[in-house]
Amino acid sequence: MHLFYQSQLPEIKSLDQDESKHCVKVLRRQAGDEINIIDGKGTFYKAKITESHPKKCEFEIIETTLEKTPVFKRHLAIAPTKNMDKMEWLVEKATEMGIDEISFFQSFHSERKVIKIDRLEKKVISAMKQSLKAQKPILNEIISYTKFLESVQSENKLIAYVDFENKVHMKNELNTQQDTLILIGPEGDFTPEEVDLAISKGFKKVSLGNSRLRTETAALAAVHLMNLAME
Amino acid sequence: MHLFYQSQLPEIKSLDQDESKHCVKVLRRQAGDEINIIDGKGTFYKAKITESHPKKCEFEIIETTLEKTPVFKRHLAIAPTKNMDKMEWLVEKATEMGIDEISFFQSFHSERKVIKIDRLEKKVISAMKQSLKAQKPILNEIISYTKFLESVQSENKLIAYVDFENKVHMKNELNTQQDTLILIGPEGDFTPEEVDLAISKGFKKVSLGNSRLRTETAALAAVHLMNLAME
């Protein structure tokens, strides 16, 4: 099934230029054909094309279906890798698996201070369409680690950092139905001071297992765990 | 910690040309310096450089440590995606998380019939060094789905294919300590006949959750589940 995206539904009942071109020129849909559209806010629309214009394809709504909302909100916060491809890959895969919010922070060992949110948004929309999801994850602009910790709220706050004396796997901290936030550090990891700061803000240290994972792999493993807790 | 790779240890006590160059020219290690080497067969070596030649860096072994062997063998078999980048990504991430064997098969909806194993081997070795593992996963050349099913052996044989009437999550089929094999179908999925054939060979149908995942994402989720079952 092909999904089109129109974030201003139900007010605007036409596809934007790129989507119209894809619909009319590439997929050759005509007036009278049914198409499926998502609004990124949790609703699937079944619609009928009324005007197959290649720059502004108009439609009327036939049916709306609400996406099932997750049992708890899944929030990933990460110190972005130097290589942006890895972050693009991560937001794509996290969207496929299921994520509600992705934040970026700059910590002591961070190698990247700037994030192109627009590019990541495109990856997210494409992944959302591919995996048949109607709710677009929120992507937040990068801020400092300290500011992030001060501003963020979540019922279940976790930080991926192995406490060798008291190792707790993240999967054992997801038994509840509480909104969950997991912090993933940069390639050089969190500093002990950064970990202490998180602890003072109510975060719990968790392990992602015995393997040494790269930043983006650790992040995806954490996203997978949050989704597994809902199954 | 930097790891070097020499698959012919303990017989050959020198690094190959590429590794020697990296060790001597890039990292500027000298005679008397200690280095860490893996053999891809499960042993970590601590060694001391005896001759820091940039094309053949020689060393003597100081200490050997055996890697902990997994509780059960983790075997992934997959119909490769058209885009080889995704398979390179997958073998890298699977190696990081932990995998013992990766097989490739060609099924009805497969879009790719050829695999460059050499390129994948390089990705695997690099990921193994990065994630501090000493055991190199086995990569098998691509064969037909039918031949694969006839030749393969595993105690716990699973196929990722959702049986909507009797949905069983893969995580619930991993409670034992049996060697496990999971089959991941191509982008167009398995045909019902292919699923029936697997069932007749003793495979069980399992789900990877409610999200529609791309082939490579499904494969990585399955690898993650096999590793979680060991934690």
TrEMBL record, chains A, B:
GO terms for biological process: rRNA base methylation. It comes from the Bacteria. GO terms for cellular component: cytoplasm. It is found in: Cytoplasm. It is an enzyme of class 2 (transferase). The keyword rRNA processing applies. It catalyses: uridine(1498) in 16S rRNA + S-adenosyl-L-methionine = N(3)-methyluridine(1498) in 16S rRNA + S-adenosyl-L-homocysteine + H(+). Residues 70-226 form the Ribosomal RNA small subunit methyltransferase E methyltransferase domain. The keyword rRNA processing applies. Keywords: Cytoplasm, Methyltransferase, rRNA processing, S-adenosyl-L-methionine, Transferase. Pfam families: Methyltrans_RNA (PF04452), PUA_4 (PF20260). Specifically methylates the N3 position of the uracil ring of uridine 1498 (m3U1498) in 16S rRNA. Acts on the fully assembled 30S ribosomal subunit. Belongs to the RNA methyltransferase RsmE family. This is Ribosomal RNA small subunit methyltransferase E.
